[in-house]
Amino acid sequence: MSKEKRLTLNAEKRKVIADVFQDHFESGSKYKAKHDEAIQTYNDMRSVAKTKIEQLVRFHQPQEDVDTIRSMISKYGERNGGELHHDNCFYVQNATPRMDTDYNGNPKEVLDDVHIQFKADKDFLTSYYRDELRSKGLDPDYNVRLNNDYDKRSPSYYNAESEINKYLGFSSDNNSSTNQTIKHKNSWENDFKIWVIGSSYCHNRMFQTETENYEWFKSFEVAKENVVMAHEKLFNHVDEKMQKLKLGLKSYRYFDQAKELADKLGVALNETVLDAHSSMALSIYSPTNLADLLTDEVELTKDEKIAIAKAQLKEQLVSHN
User: Fold this and answer.
1) How many other C-beta atoms can be found within 10 angstroms of the C-beta atom of residue 263?
2) Which letter does DSSP use for residue 203 in this model?
3) What are the backbone dihedrals phi and psi of residue 202, each rounded to the nearest 5 degrees, phi first?
4) What is the distance of C-alpha 313 from the center of its chain?
5) With CB atoms counted within 10 Å of each terminal CB, which end of the chain scores lower, N or C?
6) Residue 33: its pLDDT value, please?
7) Angle between helices 11-27 and 211-251 (to 10 degrees)
8) Three-state SS for 285?
9) CA proximity to 258, closest of 242, 271, 276
10) Burial class (CB in 10 A: 0-12, 13-18, 19+), 319
11) 76-80, 305-309, 313-317: which range is least confident on average?
């Protein structure tokens, strides 16, 4: 009886195996649960914040005043009847001052404020859509991986940044007429806006409110920050494990060694995951998937592009032989 041949590992197979372990480390982690919880908390508070900010703005700027200015603008032209701006940026100020000191040590009253924005910056959206970005073969951890040491930025960092910018909508081609897909950046930008009296300069408007309401808006901003912080904690927790795992995988020559480790850790790993990855290029070119690609509405992920390139290279080598 012939001895069964052991499956040899290479860099590509080790990468696939590492991804399986990472999914396992994340899915069962309390840090992943905390990240999901932070996103849900923000979503819940965002819904309430829309109502609260509209009530606050309309208290200071009644709808009838907005309507009057709009009528004046319609009659006399822009700026001749006042200014209106469709805004998603607001400064909420505590109506109760706190005591502080000036440069000379003299007591003074200070009115604290908090900046509320319903659009979102790239760091937040990268954290918010982390699962989606990973499913597309992108690297949402490219920035937190630096741990604020920007001297370590490499070509792979800039490649990942470029891909994230393009996917979320922060690239320069975001407003291209040929780009029919609504990017997340634009979606958040236009999710909530209300008409305010004044120019586009958000910081020129301070909407005062009582302390309790002011503190709620502060907690809303904290909820947004918590999404990013939970992302960082999740990455650090998993990355510590992954660094050790990758060192171990480099020392493994055969699949059964990785399988033994997976069994000890309760990780579901079998050879089919390697087969599925190697056949990715073929599945991309199935009639249905190819039809989607030819409509220009579906873009290949990085992993899919790599799989196709490898399949094409393999076919060229076979044809030459």
Assistant:
1) 11
2) G
3) -60, -40
4) 34
5) N
6) 96
7) 140
8) coil
9) 271
10) exposed
11) 313-317
Tell me the one-letter amino acid at 66: V
The residue that leads in pLDDT, 308 or 195, is 195
H-type helices in the chain, by residue range?
Answer: 11-27, 30-60, 63-76, 122-128, 130-135, 155-168, 184-189, 211-251, 255-265, 272-278, 280-284, 287-294, 302-320
> By the 8 A CB rule, do 233 and 30 touch?
no
Phi-psi region of 79 (alpha: psi -120 to 50; beta: other; left: phi over 0): left
In order of 172, 269, 279, 312, the CA distances from 319 in angstroms are 41, 34, 19, 11
pLDDT digit string, tens, across residues 88-147: 999 999 999 999 988 888 999 999 999 999 999 999 999 999 999 998 989 999 999 887
Q: What DSSP letter does each residue of 8-47 carry, written as one string?
A: BP-HHHHHHHHHHHHHHHHHT-HHHHHHHHHHHHHHHHHH
3-state SS class at 79? coil
The maximal CA–CA distance of the chain, rounded, in angstroms, is: 96
Residue 318 has pLDDT above 50, yes or no: no
Write the CA distances from 116 to 194, 218, 246, 254, integer angstroms.
Answer: 13, 9, 42, 54
The answer to whether the Cα torsion of 173, 177, 183, 185 is positive or negative is positive
The DSSP bridge pattern shows strands 107-110 and 194-197 to be unpaired
Residue 19 tokens, joined: 């991804």
The DSSP symbol for 254 reads B
Convert the pLDDT of each residue in 200-254 to its tens digit: 899 889 999 999 999 999 999 999 999 999 999 999 999 999 999 999 999 999 9
Residue owning tokens 């009057």 = 68
195: Cβ contacts below 8 Å, ≥ 6 apart? 66, 70, 84, 85, 86, 87
